Amino acid sequence: MTQYLILLAQKHESFRKTELEALAELEHVSVDLAHHDDNVPLLYVTLECEEDARKLIRRSILARSIFEVWGRGNSLDTLHEDVKQRTSHLWPKYKHVSFKFDVISYQGSRPKEEQREIIESFSYVDFDGPIRMKNPEEVFTIVEEYKYTTDLLESKERRELKDICFGRFIASSQRDIIDQYDLKKRKYIGTTSFDAELALISSNIGLAAPGKIVYDPFAGTGSFLVAASHFGAMAVGSDIDGRQIRGTAKSNITTNYSQYNINSQFLDTFVCDFTHNPLRPSFRLDAIICDPPYGVREGLKVLGSRNAERYADKLPTRLENGDLSHLRPDYIPPKKPYHFDALLDDLLCFAANHLVDNGRLCCWMPTANEDYGERHIPTHPDMNLISNCVQEFSKWSRRLLTYKRHPRGCTSSLRPITKSTRIYKEQFRDKYFRGFAKAKDHESVEWMEKSL
Length: 452
Prior knowledge:
disordered C terminus, 7-stranded mixed beta sheet, tRNA-binding, VC0802-like, tRNA (guanine(10)-N2)-methyltransferase activity, alpha/beta, 11 helices, Rossmann fold
């Protein structure tokens, strides 16, 4: 077993561990991430071999790079002692290769002169190869972590070296593709197009990979479809809004796939109301990755009449030429309001019915910071919540909830319901438009149970 250092991005901190755990499962890499700290972009792990290190981060978005640890200490002297003890047998292997040294510092920095002195202090490794600042065969890196302590007498903070590591660069992640998939450069986008970086992270957590089918029931302009297809998955999407799905002749979802040269990973899209999904019950999906509509830009609606009883006994409308109006290509079906909480429960039921065993559902859910609690997270007896990652804004947050489908036939500790619809007196849309000001009365919940 060898120790490695993962350099993490200082962004979306609560997603980092979840993404690495998902990639470890996908790549069949055994790793313990218990020491991950959201506040620190340095993570030390132990892996079987260098190949496992490369596999762990080769498609990561929130990791930057990984290094083989040659030594570690809380001072330069202890670092040199550890390097000599750990890796003196490795020095001859790199004696004649081209190389360069880098210095990376967290929460502090050193002048160039001090950095040069530290680099030269490693002269005992006796590398004779040429120094190349561009495209060297090996890169050796000194990684420093500083801490700040308060001097009570002088009433000011002092910077102190907390940890210093010396390692050999192994591999970089795919974080550089964020710029490639930036929405500002994408040919077809809309008002609801999802952030490219978070779409890619969601696809990693959803285990999108070659040979898998990923479905987005609220596809819009295809943000999650494109992200999943980048990682080799076959993508299919649907949406109640046919205009978003179709786009125009020169600007549509297919245009985006052509832009990124991943057309072979695109299955199809279709127009449907998610609550009346046409997929046959036996159709299985490997992952469902989506951002359900919150009802903020416009009220959340599904197909149906506000007053179904009124039309219960009425015959279909016929036009003057005898055609049924609802069969015309320009027919616009009626819609009725729908609660976001009910939509999430429908989504869980759909996932339980259509996901393969151990398949994943990754869905985004908005919450108000003022009153968020575990009661807001939907549950289902066949779906296990494995992560709850949060992206915080000023007064509200959106959470990426990841569920895993229990193997069929496995008994669950939850009571065996088929569908639970949670109706809150105040929806997220209402809180959003009142500016998340404190409500007069405490929020209460009404529970209704319905069978499919």
